[in-house]
Amino acid sequence: MVEISADAAVVGGGLGGVAAALALLRAGRTVVLTEEHDWLGGQLTSQAVPPDEHSWVERFGVTASYRALREGIRRYYRDHYPLTERARAQREFNPGAGHVSRLCHEPRVAVAVIEAMLAPYRGSGRLRVLQPYRPVGAEVDGDRVTSVRLAHRDTAEQVVLRAPYVLDATETGELLPLTGTEYVTGFEAQSETGEPSAPAEAQPLNMQAVSVCFAIDHVDGDHTIDRPASYDFWRAYEPPFWGDKLLSWRCPNPRTLAIMERSFTPNPDDHPQLVEADQRISAGDANLWTFRRIAARRNFTEGAYASDITLVNWPMIDYLEGPVIDVPDAARHLEAARELSRSVFYWLQTEAPRADGGTGFPGLRLRGDVTGGADGLAQAAYIRESRRIRALCTVTEQDLSLAIRGDKGAVSYTDSVGVGMYRIDLHPSTGGDNYIDVACSPFEIPLGALIPRRMTNLLAAGKNIGTTHITNGAYRLHPVEWNAGEAAGALAAFCLDQATTPHAVREKETLLADFQQRLTRDGVELRWPDVTGY
Length: 534
Known about the structure:
Pfam families: FAD_oxidored (PF12831). The chain is of the alpha/beta class.
């Protein structure tokens, strides 16, 4: 079996994994980065989710390298796309003019920018990317991971990675059970966390819904797909708290839980430069077409795009029938989630109510060429909730809830390694819970959340950090995952340089100060200015 060695093994090539690898590489270290899907970038690319970001993202509140990613995406459009002069001149150019983000864009553009950010290190030989590989085993000596075994997704060929530091940046914390690292899943009990929104008893299999996203446009002709095999099941499916069938325009408002009706108008003749994407003002989901639109045709020269392209990550594609972590039938649930998304698309084409009183939009096309999925959908399911390490520090709801913290702001951690901001946004869950949506204060990322209580050389570098089921809802979004990964990579590099351990860095004031100074030097913000959450 082939063995590969490096200073650090970063397992998982999502946003946290890419950021971790870049931090290690900037510090002069050698890295093996692995990813099981065809694209690096995780939720931004293979899962096809436009970036969910806070209201101040254009000014502060993200790391310098995440800002470089965002600026690279805009520059890629200006360099390669036929933009109108007005769009080209817009400093905060939003390619899709979507309401969910100030930077709604096609996933493939982010792939190109991520690859460009990594390219010099591949060329120098300090970075090796193994793709598509997934972790299938590990060797552990006491509290230390000695190797990770990977299998090729398509051929089952296996390789072994050996490195002084192993970073778990997988979407579901795959290395945690493989290495025997203590972790938690689902809802913790209120007696453990003290969280107001937690249940009385732990519910380890009660997790946020996964979603299989897809891109669509609307053009002349009939593009109706074959009727999905399970369409009748999903057509009749009605969650008890939904207010209607899942396949309808009606569903709960995440913030109020009142039943609301959304609209759907393909290709509205709106002005993309007038869209204000700010979730303080509005969630932006009233019109589903513009909610997560990733290409607004009016941003491009006449005739370049026959239609807008919108990304379907809507309430009706949330899969509630079962979790996909730590259950024997995970593969069945993942395929059922894909079948739900196909059924939603077929419903849109054939039965969805139209404003003119008719039904169905046969002109809708599935744009698998945009998402890269062989079946027309995203390559991977959007995983909102991972396994989470039993960490030295676990962030709880009362640390950042605006209702609890008020004008004090979120808890400030002595060992902060970054910042983030998003409402605690929990989608309906596999345990039958409705939305949980809690206003937040701008928060910090504690170093202790990246470090397992026991393992000495394994670090969490994604959505598997020390949060709870509830606070994961705020820490799971794009810039926070990137910051967590970047801090984990920087920590591994710092420990190698100083011949120390992650636990020691957190415990010793001088080491912690030196590490935080390095983060600040590299453009990682550790504190917020005086701003109020939402």
